[in-house]
Structure formats: structure tokens, C-alpha cells
Amino acid sequence: MVSASMAFNVFLGAVAVVTAALMIRNLRSTGELPLPGLRKERGGGQGAELSVYVDGRRLVGVPYVAEELPREGQDLPLRLARLARSARVSVTFVSSMYSVRKSSVLKLLEEELRKTEFAYTATRHVKYRERLAELEDLYKDVMRVQVPYLGGFAFIVWVDPDDKDATLGAEAFKELVEAEANVRVRRARANELEALLTSSRPTWFSQDSWGPVVVGRDVINNETGVVIGEEVEGPGNLVILRWPDGFRVHLGAFGPTGRGKTVLLAGLASQLVSLSHTFGDPTAIVVVDPKGDLADMLRGVADSYITPSQGSCVPIRRVDGVAEKLVESARETGEGAEVPLCVGSGFSPAGLVVYDLRGLPNELRNVYGSLIVSSLALEASEMGLRGRVVLILDEAWRFAKGSAVHLEFALREGRSKGLYVIYATQLPTDVGRPIVDNTGYKLVFGGFTNTYVEMGAQLGLERPELLRSLPVGEALMVDEVGRARHVKVLDFSKPFKNLARLAGEGEGVRSDGEEPKAAEGRKGVIDLQEPRPRTPRPS
Known about the structure:
Shape: globular
Structural class: alpha/beta
Number of strands: 21
Mean pLDDT: 78
CATH class of the largest domain: Alpha Beta
Strand content: 15-25%
Helix content: 25-40%
CATH topology of the largest domain: Rossmann fold
Radius of gyration: 28 Å
Strand order of the largest sheet: 7-9-8-20-19-18-10-17-16-11-15-12-21
């Protein structure tokens, strides 16, 4: 016979089980625990902002979005939560997962494998060996699954709008997140908040905010960037590449001789110079021209005009490890031709620096320009540049002839290290697939041959046959996700000719059209030759 006390204990146990089950069910159904006093307010339009009220205090959101996905392990969310707690900030993390094509993920992994294998071959460092093993295992996992997933990563720091130092605190926390998650993070605009929280395609969200924008001539002053040209489908509208976000993914111009590539490069360089002189950003624009046409156009606006001769040296920080591989790759472009190095000298360009290489033999032009690429990339990767630097390469095929390892290194490292590359060549095959794959924006000028039209298809054009009908000076601009825009590149040749004519009346450029000597240049321009390596005097 069951006693009364035993029956009561059974009853209490049943109540406890039911209560626990209800608690678990509620937690699963709601997914959150409500915080008293929390209320969201959403504005509209350009000035939209997201705010919350906690204990009667209004906090405003400062949104940030990562430029790439964190790859720092499954415990990253926990580490970020601890980071926020230690920094004493209020923050909302936004992370999403989306199914993607297996081929896209495999392509990404193959590129990462090549980069890591190169680093391990050069250094034999154990961290690169471990990274290789990790990537190979990940590659096998992706091969096994049916549908791989990728996602987006962003966060909002909540600050007191009346606290003048609160934004500085948000920026400091952003830097902590960058270091912890090993990603580069940018601040999003207020009107992007809705997309940040609800967008089902985070890749498109980030691309739209980085990529080329189309604006009317009457509102161009509201944008900070560089004009690529006029939109053909919308006459009067200008296509602008915002600075600096639009340049982080690099830009390549392709097309036959005489189609407008050099005019495009000159226009981009002159506008970047204007940004540099006005805002101090970019710190430097380095132009490397093997044939002299681009250099001629920029002579009147250059801060430094360098005409190296045989025996001139290229400064480079060191020549061991990765640097040795970069130097070897650079020398292969000139079939082993030797250009001296000033080892130990850092590369710190400022303003518009133009390298006119036409006075060198062909092989030395290739090697000299490739060593500039190597030195800048090494400086950016290891020591850090003093600010953002844009590297402009005309006749880029010369710097990828035989080996393009140094150029690929510059494009890969440049995205996150502030070295942005703009290059021009006739065909994608001139520079190789790894270079093209690491180029975000491609301007494809017109051409008539079947081979050239096939090249357009390789660059992602849905209708490459349009290249046959493009007149001189017009191009199709293709972004990272394959969207194309028909652009008429602005003709900067006339302003440059006028500048050369005015300079020729009294500042060193001859009015008869003859090329001035290296020492002849406009007043105020540093016109010099590269230093020769010092040789010790005999004792």
C-alpha cells in the first residue's frame, strides 16, 4: 500500500517534469528572452537610423560589415561575445548562412591553396604547413557535401548619441573585432541598416555599396571617387568608382592598341592625384610606363618623374624568404636580365610618382617594373605602407612575362594592405588566369577578331559579341559578380595636350613636339634618375 508521503513526492516529481518541459518548449518557440524596456525604432530614407531604449536610455546603432567571411573556427562567436563583455560595449552581431554553388567554393579554396603553398615553399614555416593541411581537409569536406554554405558577417555597436567619445569607442571595438576574426571591417552607411538586417543576399549588399555608382552631373559633388566615364544607356549620367572601397578589388583594362586604355589610365591617375592633394588620401599614385605614352600625358601633373638608366637600382626592404621568390619572379620577366637592388631601403612614395622606362632596353624595362611591383607589395605586406597607394601599370604583359608570381602577390596582399592595382594590357592571357581572377573590375574595350570576342566571354560578359560594335573610347565594365555596364570613357587626352602645350611655352616641354630630355620638365616637378647602388671604395 502506497503511503501518503510517497504519493505526494510522486506528485511533486510530475509537476517538476511538466514545468521543465514547458520551459524548454517556450525557449525553443521564442528563441529569445525579452528584456524589459527594450524598444526598436526605425527611421526611413537617407537619414534612417536604428535605435533602442534600454532602462529609459536611447542608444543609436553604429553598423559595421565585414568585407570577407571570418575563417577563425567554430568558437569565434563565443570569443566575440567575450570580447564585447570585456570592452563593455552593447553590440548586436548579425551572421547569416546561404547555400552556394560547389564550384565557386572549390575555386576559392584552390586559390587559397596556391597562395599558402607559395608561402610555405618560400619560408618552410610550420604555420603554412598546418594551413595547407587545414585547407586540404576543407577541400575534401566540400567535395563530399551536396550543397556548401557561405554567409555574411556584420555587427552594430549601440552608443549614447549624446556622448562625444562614444563613436571613438565603437571604432576601437571594430579594430578589436578585426584582430580577433582576422577580417577587414568597414562602417556601413545609415541608409544601409535595413539591408544589413534583412538582406537575403549579403554579397549583393556589399557589392552595391562598394561598386560603381551612376549619378547625374548635377550631383557629382556629393560623391568621393573617380569618374570612369559616361553611361551610354543614360546620357548625362556619370559612372563613378568610389574611393577607396571600389579600388580594393583592383581594376584591369583590356583592349587592342589605340582603343583608349592609356587615356583611361591617365584620367584615373589625374583624378587620384586630385584626391591625394585635397584629402591626403591616397598617399601615393605610382605609375610604371614601359613605352612612354602614359608618362608623357602625366608629366605635367607629376610630383616626381623618374627616368631610370642602366645601373639604376630599385629599393627593396630585404631579399630573403618570400622577398627572394618575388625578386626571382621579377627577373624571369626579362629572361634573367639583372637590375641592381638597393637592399635595406624602404619604398615610401608620395604624390604622383611616374616611372618612364622607355630609355631602358626591353628586358630591363620588364625587370625594373616588376621589381617595383615586388618591392611595393613586400612593403605593404610586412612593414605597412604610410597610407593607401595606387599602383598603375601600362603594358602589364611585360610584368607577367615568364612569371607573374610577384604581380599575383601584389593583388592578393593589396586587398587588405592598402595597395590597389590598376593595369592595362591587350588580352587576359597576357597576364594569366590568377591575375584576372583577382581583378574585381574589368573594362573591356572593343575588338573585331573572334579570339578577342572569345576573350570577352572568359571575362564574364554575357554578350561578348557586343565588343565587335564598340567604337573607340567605349568599353563594357564588368564587376565581380558579372554585371556589365556600357561606358564611354571620358577623353582626358585634350586637357593633357593643352597642359603640355602651356608647359612647352616656358616650362620645359618643347612646342615642336619633340620629347624633352630627362632633366627637362615643368617647374616644381622632381625630375630625376633612380639612385645607383653604392660600391665600397678600395681601402
